[in-house]
Structures are given as C-alpha cells and as structure tokens.
Amino acid sequence: MKRLFFFLAIVALASLSLIWPPGLNFFHCKPDLLLIFMVALVFYTDFRDALIFGVLAGLFKDIFLPWNLAINTICFSIWSYLIYRLSHQITIEEDYVRVAIVLVVALLNNLVIGLESVAIGNAISVGIFLRNLIIVSVYTAALSPLIFKLTKKISA
Amino acid sequence: MFKLPRKTLINSAIVLAALLLVTNFLSCFKTPALKLTQPHLSLIEILKRETFGLLHYHRNMLMVEKLQTEVKLLRLRLFDLREFSLENSRLKKLLSFKQKASLRFVPGRVIGRSVDSWSSSLIIDKGKYQGIKSGMVVICPEGLVGSIIETNMDTSKVLLINDPNQGVSGIVQRSRQEGLVSGTLGTNLIMRYLPDEADIVPGDVIVTSELSQIYPKGLLVGRVVNVGREFSGLNRYAMVKPTANLANIEEVLVIIP
User: Closest partner residue to B184 among A25, A55, A125, by Cβ?
Assistant: First the structure.
C-alpha cells in the first residue's frame, strides 16, 4: 500500500511540475519537486525503496523532457546511493541538514544537466546558466520541507 | 569516507547496467506515462479555466462586449479583404504565378509545460488521432511558437522557439537580411550568423524565411531589441523578442501542411 502511495505521489508531483503556474516561477525558474521527493525517500524509507522510487521519479522527469536522454534517471539513482552512504557518515536528523543536502544535490543535478546541455552544443549564456543553477537549486531547497512532510506522512 | 566493499560494487554495476537499459528504451515508457497523466492534466486545466471564468466574470463580460464590437468591425474588413484576395488570385492567375496553398490548422490547448528550467517545451491535448505528426509547426495568433517533436495518441510535445535546441531560419522583413534564430532559455531569442554589414536595427521585424525546410515562409517570429557583435568579431548577432508570449501561452494552432 505504501508503495502504491509513493507511486501516486510521483505521478502527482510530476503533474504538478507540468502545470506549475507561471505566477509561482521565481526569475522564470521552477522548483524540482521530483528531486526533493527522491532525496526525501532516502531519509524516510529503506534504501531499496528509495532507490527504486528515486529511479522512477527520474524516469518520470525524463519522460516529460524534450530530449531522449535519461540523464535524470541515472543521476537520481547516483544521488540516492550517495545520500544513503552519506547518511551513515553524518547525522541527518536536523531539518536544516536535510535542506542543505537537497540544496547540494539540486546544485549538482543542475550542474550535470547544464554541462550536458552545453556539451551537446547549445548556446546558453553564463547568466542563464547561473540562474538555472543557483536560483532553481535555492528554490528547490526552499520548498523541500513541504515535500519532506508529504513523504514522512506516506512512509509513516 | 566512501570505502566501497566488493558486493556493493557488483550491486552498483548491476543497477547501472539496468539504468543504461532503461535509458536505451526511454521512448517505450513515454506513451504509458503520458496516458497516465493526460486525463487528470486535462481535468485540472478545465477546472482552472472554469474557476478563473467565475472569478473574472465581470471582467469577461466587459471584454465580451468589447470583442463583439471588434468582431463586427473585423467582419467588415474581412469582407473587403476577401474582395482583394479574389482580385489578387485572378491577377496572379493572369500572370501565371504559382498559387500559395492556404494553411490548415488544428487548435490545441496547453495541458503541460516543461518540468525543468533547462528546456522549454509544452504538452498539448492533440495527437495522432487529430492528424498531428512530428515536425509540424505550431503558432498562435501573435506569431511562431515552435514545432512538434513527439506525438502520442491524444497528446503532443512542442519544442518552443526559446529552447536552445530549436533553430529557425529567419529574415529581417525590411532589409531581407537572413540569419539563424535560436532559443536562449531566456525571454529573448538570438539571431546569429549576421554579416558585419548586415542591415538590421532595433525594432526590425523578423519572419521565417523560405530557406526553412519546416517553417512556412512569412510567419512572424519577433522584433529586434538589441544588436551586438559576436565574441569572434566576425559576425553580428541580434536579440529578438518573440511576439508570442511563450511563458503564458494557453492555446496554440498546429499547421497541417
């Protein structure tokens, strides 16, 4: 049952990302809700479920993107594993630590996607690259406590 | 810090191999996922439209009155223009000019937007059932919007002109100077490969050129806001503000060739 709710949460968050109102965009940037959910899964469930649903979240994100490269699917699984390893090394019980982890993961994820976009020859100005890197990551981290609450409720 | 045991390494390799397999077959997952989300995305869109309709009832009422007056005036103008059009086609026939085929449209409603900030795309509620195919051009009354890159049974994905992967062969309407218009992910587009002596100034209108294989000639792209010199110093570029409001677009027209 819990797994069904995780799946439904992914569908709901993907849909919310698709219909995210332009009025809630911050400097033309929207938060990465699926990435927050992927990080939250590592905090609130066992590693196997976190990895499976993290990959599923990445897959859902890739499906709705215009390119055919499953970069988020690969990245999300790597971030899931690294956060899981990190959780054995440091205490991640405090909320601010969790938000900081989301910020770092969002920065890394955006950096990978941005560099991949530049590598395939897209002309992205430095300003827009930094905007997508920093503002999206900060916005994502700022919204993370809400998704954490949702994930906590589902996993409880 | 990250000391990996042998078993973990093997497991990671298996997971990575599975992921690479998923990556290869990404397109297989697209149709079921879109089928899963399309009904409730459409429902949300309808609910949103109805709610806004109720909230803005008075404003809409005044707007309807204003638009009805405008429609009456435009009908009169259309009647005049129809006469001109008939006269034009008669004269063209006399001069043996090649007749330009009139465009057919399929209207579509936007039911989803790009999920991240690194791409600029839309999902519309029209697909293969309505005759939409990949490569078709999408416009709105204000100008060019983009092109179809993917179609499913009831939905299609539109790559907007402000996506960096999108390129449109454009021409300055006044001076007939050609260049390549591509997206920047920002609010403006960039027109590149303009020669040093290019006759282009802020305010110039950019339309699609006949060199484009996909886009019909003469579609309005945008207006030049700024002209500059490229870093190499060999070419110039122009920043173009698209006439279509790509951030808030709700309805589009797909051109059926």
Answer: A125
